[in-house]
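Record minuted for everyone:
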Amino acid sequence: MPAVPTPLGRSTADAPDDPPHRIPPPAPADLPPRAPARRRASHTTGFWFVAVAFTVLMAFGTAPTPLWPLYEARDHFGATTVTVAYASMVVGAAAAFLGLGHLSDRLGRRRIIVPALLVGIVASVVLIVWRDLPGLIAGRILNGVGLGLMASTATTYLHDLHHEVRPERTGSVLPGIVATAANLGGLASGPLVAGAAAEWLPMPLITAQAIFTLAMAVCLALVLCTPETVDLELPAARPPSRFVLRPGGRRAFGAAGALGAFAFAILGLISSLGASVLHGTLHTDSHLVVGLAAFLMFGSAAAAQLVLGRLPLPRLLTVGAVVFPVGLVLCAVALHHPALWLYLVAVSLSGAGSGLLFKGGVERAGSVAEPASRAGVLAVFFVVAYLGMGLPSVLFGIALRHFRRADRDDRFRDGPLLRRRRVGGRRVAGSRNRSRRALGAIRSPLLTSLRRIRHRLSGRCRPGHPVRVRVTRIRGGREARDDCGIGQNDRAPLR
């Protein structure tokens, strides 16, 4: 603060009768009286405060990844409901991106970051107190709102704070690197922290949320000490159009949006159904391993962007287009021939490829936007990308449930036909039974493997577990069926 003038600087002749302490002259009439300024941190310290808050809130968004099986057991729902609960966060984030993300230019960066952390704290409290499926969905929606507010403002805030410290370095890459590390690094660290809490701490569903509640409360105090970078005393300018593209840029923006949605789809699938895959197909009951898989996926995306982010856009997209499908193929192989190490390698490669494709989409979308509406264009791009993260997961969960139900219905209808009938003292099979046997004999091994994966993804058919048999009576006969709906023979023991 500037030093207050004192009478010591004046000669005694000029003011012989001055009292020892003079009251400073009143402020000019045209300036309103200013309240005493709150003590703030420096711009450099505030830069790292915002980076930490960005990381913590993004980590809170992906923390439930290793906890979904525990939520399933508590609230008694299946994989489809898991994907819906996961996608509810996407709905909240999309609403925040479109409706509230642009307000930081008029209200200030800190005035958006602080509500984002407050909404995150409220979301964690809802998840702790409201222990039911509606509470889970409500908490996830609030989580998405906070995440959208943070992601749409924190990157710009970091650039502004760095510019205040180093105004001569207008093209510095440090804010972009820190923003990428905070964004994807937070998404990577959330599942790992929650998985460790679920593995070693009691009451994991409450303990994990309490950890993030405390962390967000600390970050809130730090951000409140960070200086504002938007001059709120200046008259508000006319707000620019939110979505304006350069002439001929619609097709390029559509391709960029499709690329972002495609890249985020695998991230959403692993985040929502990865725990079911590891528990059901790879027979891994460790919550820490589930968190480790998500950590490797998001961490590889961040590392790929930081290491290869300076490549030209065509080369960047080429590398991503090669690495991404290789990771997907290895995922399929790891599920067909269960191998945990191969699955971890596969999700790492998929994450690296998706990170490169997403960065290419961001650069392409920004290049076709008008300079005055670049923030609005990128907000729409992020909404499309987040929809790609949530919608395929829901559709996959619905398809998985439909295929599992159709498989059970087929086996239920096949039960009476699989029993042979006695006609004239001889055991003969019906014509329909013979035709079905012929079709079963020529069935592709790939379809058989997919059916096995579907049963194991349901989480109820695990090798080594005792089979619970229930008996259904059909036309006077009986048919024993196990947990997965696979028919047993008539001599199966009754339980």
About this structure: The longest helix spans residues 374-418.
